[in-house]
Amino acid sequence: MAEQRPELTTEMGTVRIADEVVSTVAGLAAMEVEGVAAMSGGWGTDLVEKLGRKNFGKGIKVEVINEETRIDIYIAVQYGYPIPEVAENVQKEVKVAVETMTGLKVTAVNVHVVSVQIKKQTEAEPELAADLDSAE
To answer: Rounded CA gap, 93 and 85, in Å?
Structure first.
């Protein structure tokens, strides 16, 4: 049974929005949330990104039926941020962005926190730590 893709019909014709567009909008919105370290798309998607192709929809599963959509998003949270708060902010931002940009009704945004990432040290930080050790 084929699913009915969402369509916007205007006097000029029909507009269809691909699931990849919805996942890209959702991914960009999620990355704007403070505390989100990365999207998690699994090893295959991560390998493609290492080869140089950015995938803004990685870690996102979109299910669109008629005018409604359900989104599952897989993220890594930065260490030190409250996970429930980050997840709730992701839900809000993704819902607003997808509804605003696509006109689809978002019925659910399920956030799956798959890891916690520690902030990487910049090159200056190890030197600063060495300077502090020698000052003592």
So the answer is: 12
Q: Which residue has the tokens 């998690």?
A: 40
Cα–Cα distance for residue pair 93/89, rounded to 1 Å:
6
Instruction: Using alpha carbons only, give the angle 100, 97, 21 rounded to the nearest 5 degrees.
Output: 90
Nearest in space to 117 (alpha carbons), one of 87, 78, 73: 78
Sequence-ordered list of residues with C-beta below 8 angstroms from that of 108, at least 6 positions apart, any chain: 70, 71
State how far the Cα of 76 lies from the Cα of 1, in Å rounded to an integer: 35
- Paired tokens of 115: 């890891």
H or E segment and range at residue 135: helix 124-135
Per-residue pLDDT tens digits for 19-57: 889 999 999 999 999 999 988 865 444 444 444 445 567
- Which residue bears the tokens 């708060």? 85
Q: What is the rounded distance in angstroms from the CA atom of residue 19 to the CA atom of residue 62?
A: 6
Query: pTM for the full model?
Result: 0.73
Which of the listed CATH numbers 3.40.50.300, 3.30.70.1350, 3.50.50.60, 3.30.420.10 matches domain 7-135? 3.30.70.1350
Task: State the amino acid at position 88 in one-letter form.
Answer: E
